[in-house]
Write a structure and sequence with these properties.
The complex is a heterodimer of chains A (494) and B (88).
Chain A: H1 8-12, E1 16-27, E2 65-66, H2 67-79, E3 87-88, E4 91-94, E5 104-107, E6 114-123, E7 126-139, E8 143-146, E9 156-160, E10 167-173, H3 180-196, E11 209-219, E12 229-234, H4 237-256, E13 264-269, E14 274-278, E15 290-291, E16 298-299, H5 302-311, H6 316-327, H7 331-337, H8 341-352, H9 357-375, H10 385-397, H11 403-416, H12 420-427, H13 435-448, H14 450-457, H15 463-474, H16 481-493
Parallel strand pairs in A: 12-13
Antiparallel strand pairs in A: 1-10, 1-11, 3-16, 4-5, 4-15, 6-7, 7-10, 8-9, 11-12, 13-14
Chain B: H1 9-27, E1 50-51, H2 61-64, E2 76-79, E3 85-86
The chains are: A alpha+beta (494), B alpha+beta (88).
Bound molecules: zinc ion.
Zinc ion is lined by residues 33, 36, 38, 51-52, 54-55, 165 of chain A.
Chain lengths: 494, 88
């Protein structure tokens, strides 16, 4: 924790222990909605175009479960090491709000699709382990906006049901997290995992990946649990971190003053940098759950579960460990290269094409990552492509071109593509690594820079730079510089 | 839906008595010994009724809104919901 700046929240954590649990709602990447055939791509359509009697909650309709949504949820549950009970059913969660056309949300109450999982991740050198209470499936609500820019003065609200009925997976974490940093890392890892297994697009700003937190403080001296406060409206990792720090600070101040924490829901207000009480949700706590009569229950047999398990890709932590063992990478490089499935696949393809493991890692994390970012274009889809990069790095590895030439070619060919070898031949970019040729240039450099040569002989190491530059310029930047370095040192030590 | 029905005083008395009778009738079930019967969520035998993840035609906003009590041609319009934010 030495690198973390001392904040009021961190100071408060010396007196109080924070107990934090997160609930994540993640929309599944299905083509159609949870219980009807309407398109789930709710932002692609004009308001209310993606609706039908089922997702509008009209009387007399029959919902039917989307098989793919079940499979995605089971896939997630297995990736989080959950148990999958054989029996699961849906329930009605009853409440009234204009974005919920039926007056109830189809959700899962006492028989969720899965329970008792876990996720582990590193935070500042320690491994944090967080239990997963359950992963269950429900449907998203519609969306609302209000007339006028100030909510309080609005007289009308406008409802769009395009999002109504989009499959929504709820991942409930155990209250095992102790700092705002833990909470942020938990979300980073969970989002990475969901994207890795292809069930969610991980967009916090657009709300396809949403997070609520429960947080309480307890005195380090006393054993009793504190009062829980629910925090909502956090739509970035940074917001989660700031909201929880601010809430730790607020609760500590309340407790320090001898007052008690109110059990309530608070919303994070980014512009004010603090959480604000949301009284309106208070009434809504009795949801009168009962089994959904329109949906027969599910019995997921072990053959189905095992088939889904077999379809899981190798997950990031395991893949990073394998990268260390198999390719001799350090843990940091391995974790960077496995942070998305595409990056990890690209790396392995490059190695399979014959590029040395460490060389491939350095280039992918360095120059290639910078170009991908600059052009908003991954290597796989770039003009150069994975095969092109492997040819380019092959020229470098066999000393046909030097490092600077390789970088120039990469920048030039990244978007437009082309055969690196043909360009090297055509422009005479081949590296000058002929010893006899370079020895002559080294001699010329020494003759042209007598002061530098004398200085180096006298022990001034930096003087070598001027001599190296001379040879580099004489070859148009194509000299094998490590070789030039060696030849210069040999000549000058005589 | 039932919770939304407006009732006048006479209807309230009439339906109140009827609902009372229904609840009385149902409460007879409480006398049955169910100690060794496991809970069930449904009376049918069906399980695993699912559909493939396939897109089907939607209604479109115009038809979706055609029976709405209030709309602006694109949205359902309702009285404003006050999300009271209280400082604290
Ligand atoms: Zn629909």
């Amino acid at each position: 924790m030495t690198q973390t700046a001392e904040t009021p929240a961190i100071a408060a954590l010396e007196r109080y222990e924070a107990v934090i649990g997160l609930e994540v709602h993640a929309q599944l990447l299905t083509v159609s909605k949870m219980f009807c055939g309407c398109s789930a791509a709710y932002t692609d359509a004009a308001p209310n175009d993606n609706t039908c009697p089922v997702c509008l909650g009209l009387p007399g309709v029959l919902p039917v479960i989307n098989r793919q949504a079940i499979e995605y949820t089971v896939r997630t549950a297995l990736a989080l090491e959950c148990e999958i009970p054989e029996f699961t059913k849906f329930d009605r969660k009853n409440y009234f709000y204009p974005d919920l056309p039926k007056g109830y949300q189809i959700s899962q109450y006492d028989t969720p699709l899965s329970r008792n999982g876990r996720i582990e991740f590193p935070v500042g050198g320690e491994t944090v382990r967080c239990g997963i209470t359950r992963v269950h499936l429900e449907e998203d609500t519609g969306t609302m906006h209000h007339a006028g820019d100030v909510l309080q003065s609005a007289t009308q609200s406008f409802v769009d049901f395009n999002r109504s009925g989009v499959p929504l997976m709820e991942i409930v974490g155990e209250p095992d997290l102790r700092t705002a940093e833990h909470a942020r890392e938990y979300l980073v890892r969970l989002r990475q995992l969901l994207m890795y297994i292809g069930v969610n697009d991980g967009n916090l700003e657009k709300g396809s990946f949403r997070c609520d937190a429960n947080i309480s403080l307890r005195s380090r001296e006393a054993a009793e649990l504190g009062t829980k406060v629910e925090v909502k409206n956090m739509n970035s990792f940074r917001a989660v971190h700031r909201a929880l720090e601010s809430e730790i600070e607020r609760q500590a101040a309340v407790l320090d003053s001898g007052a008690v924490i109110q059990q309530e829901t608070r919303g994070w207000v980014e512009t004010r940098g603090r959480t604000v009480s949301q009284r309106s949700k208070e009434y809504a706590h009795d949801y009168r759950y009962f089994p959904e009569p329109d949906l027969p229950p599910l019995r997921l047999d072990s053959a189905f579960v095992e088939r889904v398990r077999a379809s899981l890709p190798e997950l990031p932590p395991a893949r990073a460990r394998r990268f260390v063992d198999q390719y001799g990478l350090n843990a940091y490089d391995a974790s960077v290269l496995t942070s998305t499935r595409e990056d990890a696949d690209t790396y392995e393809e490059l190695v399979r094409l014959g590029v040395a493991a460490k060389l491939a890692a350095n280039w992918l994390m360095g120059d290639v990552a910078a170009l991908a970012n600059e052009h908003r274009l991954g290597l796989r889809d770039s003009g150069l492509g994975i095969a092109g990069l492997s040819r380019l790095l092959g020229l470098l590895d066999s000393a046909r071109i030097n490092g600077p030439t390789a970088k120039e070619l990469l920048t030039e060919l990244y978007v437009r593509g082309g055969d690196p070898e043909a360009i090297v031949l055509e422009r005479g970019l081949g590296q000058v690594s002929d010893e006899t040729e370079l020895e002559a240039l080294v001699d010329a450099a020494i003759a042209a820079n007598p002061v530098a040569a004398t200085d180096f002989r006298g022990g001034k190491q930096q003087a070598l730079g001027q001599l190296m530059r001379h040879v580099k310029e004489a070859t148009g930047g194509r000299a094998d510089m490590p070789l030039v370095n060696r030849l210069l040192r040999e000549r000058l030590s005589r | 839906m039932l919770a939304r029905l407006g009732l006048d005083e006479g209807e309230r008395e009439r339906f109140g008595a009827q609902l009372e009778a229904i609840l009385d009738h149902i409460s007879k079930l409480q006398q049955v010994d169910t100690s060794d019967v496991s809970e069930m969520a449904q009376v049918g035998e069906l399980v695993n009724v699912m559909r493939d993840d396939v897109r089907e035609p939607c209604l479109g906003a115009e038809r979706a809104l055609s029976n709405a009590p209030a709309g602006d041609g694109r949205h359902f319009v309702v009285g404003a919901i006050q999300e009271n934010e209280l400082d604290g």
